[in-house]
C-alpha cells in the first residue's frame, strides 16, 4: 500500500514537471565558457520560457554527447578536426559564441609583473628553464628581482579546450615543442604537476611559491591572479584583457569559423586567444526530435550571438564576437534544416 | 499450486536479479573494453604509455596500477596502527563502557563522511600543511592522498576487528592473568593469536576500499601521468584517471578507461573474495 | 593445560615485574593516543566546516537555487554574501534517493527474506557472496555501468534516472545484507508457532517476520541511504547537474554533492562550498546516528 502511494506521488511529480517546462533544451561540453553560458541561459529562461540545462563536462565530453545524440547541442573550445567531422554520424555546424584567452599565471611573492617571449615560455614548459633565476628570464625583465627558486609547472590533468589553445600556440611558435609535444586537449607533458580543471590549476599555483601555469582567462580575471605579459607576433608585450582578446578575432576567418586565433598578427592582440563554439547537427530531424524542439534549440543559439547575450559575455569577462563573426554565425544558423527544410527565417 | 509454493518461487526468482545484475555488470564492462582489449591485449597491463594524442593513440594501465597500489598500501600502513589501537580501545581496554560506545560511534561516523568532503578537507587544510612542512612544493601527491585514504578506511578496518577481539574466550585471558601476566602480555599472547585472522581479513577489506576510492584521491594526488618516484611525488590512480578523463574521452580512449574500470572491478573483487574467504574459515 | 603453560613461557614472565609493568602502561598510553587521534579527525573535519561555512547559512540558502557565476562574482566583488542557495541540489538529492529507494528497497527486502529463509542452501551462499562483492565495487565503476545502461540507450542523455539507477545498484547489496541480518534475529519459536497454527507462509513473513524485525530493516535502509547520499563520482557520470529544480526523470538533475563539486570548480563560488558541505555532512551524520539509535534500541 505504502509503496503504491509513493509510486503515484512520483508519477504525478513527473507529469507535473513536464507540464511546467514549455520546451527544455539540454547541452553539454566546454567548461571554459560555462560562467558565460550559465548567466546567458538563466537570462534566456527568464525572458523566453525555454528551459536550458548545460553541463560543463569538458569539450571532449560535449563532442561525445552530440555524437551519442544525447544532447541538443554540444560545446567545445576546440573545433572538430576533419577526422573528427568524418567520425560524426551526420554533418555538423560550428557556431562561435564568444572568445576567451589563456593566461599564464605565476606565484612569485613580491613580483608584480613579468614579461615572457614565446621562446622562454616554451622553454619553461619543456623543462629547459628550471629556475626563476635563469639568465633568459633576467634579461627579459631587467627591473625584476627573481628568487633562486625551482619552477613548478602546473598543467591540466583532464582533457580541456584550454590545454588545446595553449599547446596550439606553443606548437605554432616553437619548433621543439612542435616536434616533442604537439597540440591537443591532452598532451604528454615533459614536466610539472597536473590539476583537474581551472580551479585545480589555480589552486595549485596559489598554494605553491615558484609555480607557473596556464588558466582560462575568465577564471584569471575573476580571481585577479597575477599574469604574465606575452610577446605577440608584432613584437609587443600584451596583457590579457577583454579588449586584447577580442582584437585577436578581428582578422580574416574562414566560412565555417573553424580557426584558431592563437598567435594573431593584429598588433594589439593577445596571442593565446580563441573562439569557443556550440556544435549542432546540420539537419535537426534525428532521434525522433520534434520540429518544436529543433526550433527552440536554434532560437536559443541565435539569441546567444545577439547583442544582448554578447553584452553578458563582456560582463562575465569574455570577449564578445567581432560584428563580422556574429553575422557569420547567424548566417550559418540559417543553413540548418529540419528534414531538409530551413528552420530559421 | 498453493500460495506457499508461489511465494517460494517469487523469492527464488527475485534472488536471481542480483546474479543478473552482477553478470550484466561484468558483461557491460567487458563489452565496453573490447576495442581496447583487442588492440592492446596483455600489453595494456605492462605498458606505461597513456597517450591520447590523435593519430598516435596508445594506452597502458601500468602507471595507474602502480599509483593505485602505492597509495593504497601506504594508506593501509598508516591505517593499521590507528585501527589496531582503536579496536583494542573499544573491544578490550574499555569494553562495554559508555566511552567505548562513543568512540565506536565516532569511528563509524568516519565511514559516513562522503569522499568529496574528505577531498575538500585535504585540499584546503592538509595540502597547505604539507607545503608548510616543506615536504612537497604544492602539497599534492601520494603521501597526502594516502593520509586521507587511511582515515577513510579506518572504520572498515576496525568494525570486524572489534568483533573478533571481543570474541576471544574469556577463560583464556583469565588464565593468563592468573599466571601474573600484564594486560599487554595478554594482548600479545592470547588476544592476538586468537583474533589474528579476523583482523587480517578486516585489513584486507579496508585495502579493497582504498583501491576504489575516487574523489578524495582525484583532488589530492596531483593527477600526473607518471610513475611516482617517491612518497611526495604526484601520480594518478585508476579511479582518479577515470574521474579525470571519462567525461572527455571518446573512441579508443573511452574504451581504455572502461578497461581500467573492468580491471578495478576485478582487483577489488579478488581482494574482497580473499577477505571473505578468511572470514568464512573462522566461521 | 598446554595452552596455559605456553602462555606462561611466551609472555616472558621471567623479566622483572617493574619493567613489564612500565611496558604495559606505555602501551596503554599508545592505544589511548592513537584512538584519540582517529576520532579527533571527526571533530577536525566538522570543526573546519563550521568555522568556514557558518556565515553563508541562512534561510534563503535552503529555499533558493544555486546562483549563476555572474551573480556570485558581483557579490564577491562588492564584499557581499553570495545570494542564492542549494534548493535545487537538496530537492535533486531527495529525488535521486527516492528513485533509488523505489528500485532497491523492495527488491533488497525480498532477496533478504529469501536469504534468511534459505540460509543453509549452497545457492543462498552464492547470492550472499555476490551481494558482498557488489558492496565492494568502487562507486566510479558503478557510475560507468549506469552510463552504459541508462545514459546512452534509455534516456539518450544524462538523467536523474541514470543517477537513481547507479545509487540503487549501490544500495541493493546493503539492504539485502541488513535485511537478512535483522531477520536472523527473529526467534525461530515465533515463526514455528505461527506455522503450527496453520498460517500461510506469506502471512508468516508479512505478519510475523517483517513486523518483528521492522526496526532493523529501517535502520539498515537509513544507513544505506546515508551511504549513497554523499556519493559524487557516480553522479558526475550520470545526472550531471542542473541549475534548476528538475522533476523530469529523463533530464539531468542536480544533487548536493554535485553542487559542491561545481562550487569547488568555480572561482566565484568558493564561499558556497563550506555551507553546502555543512548541510551534506549534517544530513548524512544525522541519518547515520538515527540508524544507529534505532539499531541500538532493538538490542
TrEMBL record, chain A:
Keywords: Phosphate transport, Signal, Transport. The keyword Disulfide bond does not apply. InterPro entries: ABC_phos-bd_PstS (IPR005673), PBP_domain (IPR024370), Phosphate-bind_PstS (IPR050962). It comes from the Bacteria. Residues 1-22 form the signal peptide. Residues 23-307 form the PBP domain. Belongs to the PstS family. Part of the ABC transporter complex PstSACB involved in phosphate import. The complex is composed of two ATP-binding proteins (PstB), two transmembrane proteins (PstC and PstA) and a solute-binding protein (PstS). NCBIfam families: 3a0107s03. This is Phosphate-binding protein. The lineage of its organism: Bacteria, Pseudomonadati, Bacteroidota, Bacteroidia, Bacteroidales.
UniProtKB/TrEMBL annotation, chain C:
The chain crosses the membrane at residues 29-51, 94-115, 136-152, 158-176, 208-229, 272-290. Its main location: membrane. It holds the Pfam family BPD_transp_1. InterPro entries: MetI-like, MetI-like_sf, Phosphate_PstA, Phosphate_transprt_permease. It is found in: Cell membrane. PROSITE patterns: ABC_TM1. Residues 90-291 form the ABC transmembrane type-1 domain. The keyword Heme does not apply. Keywords: Cell membrane, Membrane, Phosphate transport, Transmembrane, Transmembrane helix, Transport. It is a multi-pass membrane protein. The keyword Chloroplast does not apply. Belongs to the binding-protein-dependent transport system permease family. CysTW subfamily. PANTHER family: PHOSPHATE TRANSPORT SYSTEM PERMEASE PROTEIN PSTA. This is Phosphate transport system permease protein PstA. It comes from Prevotella herbatica.
Amino acid at each position: 500500500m505504502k509503496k503504491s502511494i509513493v509510486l503515484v506521488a512520483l508519477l504525478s511529480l513527473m507529469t507535473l514537471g513536464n507540464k511546467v517546462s514549455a520546451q527544455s533544451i539540454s547541452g553539454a561540453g566546454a567548461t571554459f565558457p560555462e560562467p558565460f553560458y550559465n548567466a546567458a541561459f538563466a537570462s534566456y529562461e527568464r525572458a523566453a520560457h525555454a528551459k536550458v540545462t548545460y553541463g560543463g563536462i569538458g569539450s571532449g565530453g560535449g563532442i561525445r554527447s552530440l555524437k551519442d545524440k544525447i544532447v541538443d547541442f554540444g560545446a567545445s573550445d576546440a573545433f572538430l578536426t576533419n577526422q573528427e567531422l568524418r567520425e560524426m554520424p551526420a554533418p555538423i555546424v560550428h557556431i562561435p559564441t564568444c572568445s576567451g584567452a589563456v593566461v599564464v599565471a605565476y606565484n612569485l611573492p613580491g613580483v608584480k609583473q613579468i614579461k615572457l617571449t614565446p621562446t622562454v615560455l616554451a622553454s619553461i614548459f619543456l623543462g629547459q628553464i628550471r629556475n626563476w633565476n635563469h639568465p633568459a628570464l633576467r634579461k627579459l625583465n631587467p627591473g625584476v628581482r627573481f628568487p633562486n627558486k625551482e619552477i613548478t609547472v602546473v598543467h591540466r590533468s583532464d582533457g580541456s579546450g584550454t590545454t588545446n589553445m595553449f599547446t596550439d600556440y606553443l606548437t605554432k611558435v616553437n619548433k621543439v615543442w612542435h616536434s616533442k609535444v604537439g597540440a591537443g586537449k591532452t598532451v604528454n607533458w615533459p614536466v610539472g604537476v597536473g590539476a583537474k580543471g581551472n580551479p585545480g590549476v589555480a589552486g595549485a599555483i596559489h598554494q605553491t611559491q615558484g609555480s607557473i601555469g596556464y588558466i582560462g582567462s575568465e577564471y584569471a580575471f575573476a580571481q585577479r591572479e597575477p599574469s604574465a605579459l606575452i610577446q605577440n607576433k608584432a613584437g609587443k608585450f600584451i596583457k590579457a584583457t577583454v579588449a586584447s582578446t577580442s582584437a585577436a578575432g578581428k582578422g580574416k576567418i574562414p566560412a565555417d569559423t573553424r580557426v584558431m586565433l592563437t598567435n594573431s598578427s593584429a598588433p594589439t592582440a593577445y596571442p593565446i586567444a580563441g573562439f569557443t563554439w556550440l556544435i549542432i547537427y546540420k539537419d535537426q530531424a534525428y532521434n525522433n526530435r520534434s520540429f518544436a524542439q529543433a526550433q527552440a534549440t536554434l532560437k536559443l543559439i541565435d539569441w546567444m550571438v545577439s547583442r544582448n547575450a554578447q553584452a553578458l559575455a563582456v560582463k562575465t569577462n569574455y570577449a564578445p564576437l567581432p560584428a563580422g563573426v556574429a553575422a557569420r554565425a547567424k548566417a550559418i544558423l540559417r543553413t540548418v534544416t529540419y528534414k531538409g527544410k530551413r528552420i530559421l527565417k | 499450486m498453493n500460495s506457499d509454493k508461489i511465494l517460494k518461487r517469487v523469492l527464488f526468482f527475485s534472488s536471481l536479479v542480483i546474479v543478473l545484475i552482477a553478470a550484466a555488470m561484468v558483461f557491460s564492462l567487458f563489452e565496453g573494453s573490447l576495442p581496447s582489449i583487442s588492440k592492446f591485449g596483455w600489453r595494456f597491463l605492462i605498458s606505461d604509455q597513456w597517450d591520447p594524442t590523435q593519430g598516435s593513440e596508445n594506452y597502458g594501465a601500468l602507471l595507474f596500477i602502480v599509483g593505485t597500489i602505492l597509495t593504497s598500501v601506504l594508506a593501509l600502513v598508516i591505517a593499521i596502527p590507528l585501527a589496531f589501537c582503536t579496536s583494542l580501545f573499544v573491544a578490550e581496554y574499555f569494553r562495554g563502557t559508555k566511552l567505548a560506545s562513543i568512540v565506536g560511534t565516532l569511528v563509524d561516523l568516519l565511514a559516513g563522511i562522503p569522499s568529496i568532503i574528505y577531498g575538500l578537507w585535504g585540499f584546503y587544510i592538509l595540502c597547505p600543511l604539507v607545503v608548510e612542512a616543506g615536504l612537497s612544493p604544492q602539497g599534492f601527491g601520494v603521501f597526502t592522498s594516502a593520509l586521507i585514504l587511511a582515515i577513510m578506511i579506518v572504520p572498515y578496518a576496525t568494525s570486524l576487528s572489534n568483533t573478533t577481539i571481543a570474541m576471544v574466550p574469556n577463560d583464556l585471558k583469565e588464565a593468563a592473568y592468573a599466571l601474573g601476566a600484564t594486560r599487554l602480555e595478554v594482548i600479545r599472547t592470547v588476544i592476538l593469536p586468537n583474533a589474528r585472522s579476523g583482523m587480517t581479513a578486516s585489513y584486507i577489506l579496508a585495502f579493497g576500499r582504498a583501491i576504489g576510492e575516487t574523489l578524495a584521491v582525484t583532488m589530492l594526488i596531483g593527477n600526473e601521468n607518471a610513475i611516482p618516484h617517491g612518497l611526495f611525488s604526484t601520480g594518478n590512480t585508476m579511479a582518479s584517471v577515470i574521474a579525470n578523463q571519462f567525461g572527455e574521452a571518446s573512441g579508443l580512449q573511452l574504451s581504455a578507461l572502461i578497461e581500467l574500470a573492468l580491471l578495478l572491478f576485478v582487483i577489488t573483487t579478488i581482494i574482497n573474495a580473499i577477505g571473505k574467504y578468511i572470514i568464512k574459515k573462522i566461521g | 593445560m598446554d595452552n596455559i603453560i605456553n602462555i606462561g613461557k611466551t609472555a616472558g614472565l621471567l623479566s622483572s615485574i617493574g619493567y613489564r609493568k612500565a611496558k604495559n602502561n606505555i602501551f596503554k598510553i599508545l592505544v589511548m593516543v592513537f584512538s584519540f587521534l582517529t576520532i579527533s579527525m571527526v571533530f577536525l573535519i566538522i570543526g573546519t566546516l563550521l568555522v568556514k561555512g557558518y556565515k553563508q547559512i541562512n534561510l534563503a540558502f535552503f529555499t533558493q537555487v544555486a546562483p549563476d557565476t555572474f551573480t556570485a562574482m558581483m557579490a564577491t566583488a562588492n564584499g557581499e554574501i553570495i545570494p542564492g542557495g542549494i534548493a535545487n541540489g537538496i530537492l535533486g538529492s531527495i529525488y535521486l534517493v527516492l528513485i533509488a529507494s523505489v528500485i532497491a528497497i523492495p527488491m533488497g527486502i525480498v532477496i533478504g527474506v529469501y536469504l534468511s529463509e534459505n540460509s543453509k542452501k549452497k545457492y543462498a551462499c552464492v547470492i550472499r557472496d555476490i551481494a558482498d562483492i557488489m558492496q565492494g565495487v568502487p562507486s566510479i565503476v558503478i557510475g560507468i555501468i549506469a552510463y552504459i545502461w541508462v545514459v546512452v540507450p534509455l534516456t539518450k542523455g544524462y538523467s536523474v534516472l541514470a543517477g537513481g539507477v547507479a545509487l540503487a545498484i549501490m544500495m541493493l547489496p546493503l539492504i539485502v545484507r541488513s535485511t537478512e541480518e535483522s531477520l536472523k534475529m527473529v526467534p525461530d519459536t515465533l515463526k514455528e508457532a505461527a506455522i503450527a497454527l496453520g498460517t500461510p507462509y506469506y502471512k508468516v513473513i508479512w505478519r510475523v517476520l517483517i513486523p518483528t524485525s521492522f526496526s532493523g530493516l529501517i535502520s539498515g535502509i537509513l544507513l544505506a541511504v546515508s551511504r549513497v547520499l554523499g556519493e559524487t563520482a557516480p553522479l558526475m557520470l550520470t545526472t550531471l547537474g542542473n541549475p534548476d529544480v528538475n522533476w523530469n526523470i529523463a533530464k539531468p538533475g542536480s544533487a548536493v554533492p554535485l553542487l559542491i563539486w561545481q562550487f569547488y570548480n568555480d572561482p566565484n563560488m568558493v564561499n558556497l562550498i563550506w555551507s553546502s558541505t555543512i548541510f551534506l555532512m549534517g544530513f548524512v551524520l544525522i541519518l547515520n546516528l538515527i540508524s544507529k539509535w534505532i539499531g541500538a534500541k532493538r538490542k
